[in-house]
Amino acid sequence: MRVSAKADYAVRATAELAAGDDGAPVPAESLAEAQHIPHRFLESILRDLRREGIVASRRGARGGYVLARPADQVTVADVVRAVDGPLVFVRDERPADLDYEGAAADLLHVWVALRASVRRVLEEVTVSDLAAGSLPDEIRSLTSSDSAWQNP
C-alpha cells in the first residue's frame, strides 16, 4: 500500500488544526509553514477537506481553517478518504468488485483482508490522538518490534 503525499499532508494539516488549543482559525500559510507543506498544494487539499466536511473555512482578517467537528471524531481514515477516496483499490477498483478464478480465486480474500487491516488502523486513530501524541495502545504495539520499522 502506498500513502500519497496528498493524504500525508492532509493528515498533518488536520493534526495541526487539532493541536490548536483555542479553536481559532488557522491561516493556510501557517499550516503550510508549521508542517513544511507546499502552500499551493495545501490550499487544494484544504478545499477537498472542506468539501468533505472535515474542515471549515472562516473569512476575514482573522480567517483561516478550523476542524468542522471535534478532533476526537475525525479519524485518519476520514481524512485520507476525503482527499484520496477509498482506502484500498486494486487496479482502480474496490476489492469487493473484483472476481478471480482458478488458482487466483483466494487472492480476493487477500485484498479484502488488506483493506480490513488498513481500516482497522486508520479508523482507530483520530487527529486528536495525533495532536496529543497519544496513539491507542493497539496501534503503538504494532510498531514495537524492530521488524515493523525495516523493509524486507
UniProtKB/TrEMBL annotation:
Gene3D superfamilies the record matches: Winged helix-like DNA-binding domain superfamily/Winged helix DNA-binding domain
Q: Which GO MF term does the entry hold, naming one?
A: DNA binding
Q: Which domain of life is it from?
A: Bacteria
Q: Which UniProt keywords apply?
A: DNA-binding
Instruction: Kindly give the InterPro entries that the UniProt entry links to this protein.
Output: TR_Rrf2-type_CS, Tscrpt_reg_Rrf2, WH-like_DNA-bd_sf, WH_DNA-bd_sf
- Which PANTHER family does this UniProt record tie to the protein? HTH-TYPE TRANSCRIPTIONAL REGULATOR ISCR, WINGED HELIX-TURN-HELIX TRANSCRIPTIONAL REGULATOR, RRF2 FAMILY
The protein's name in its UniProt record = Rrf2 family transcriptional regulator
The lineage, from the top, is: Bacteria, Bacillati, Actinomycetota, Actinomycetes, Micrococcales
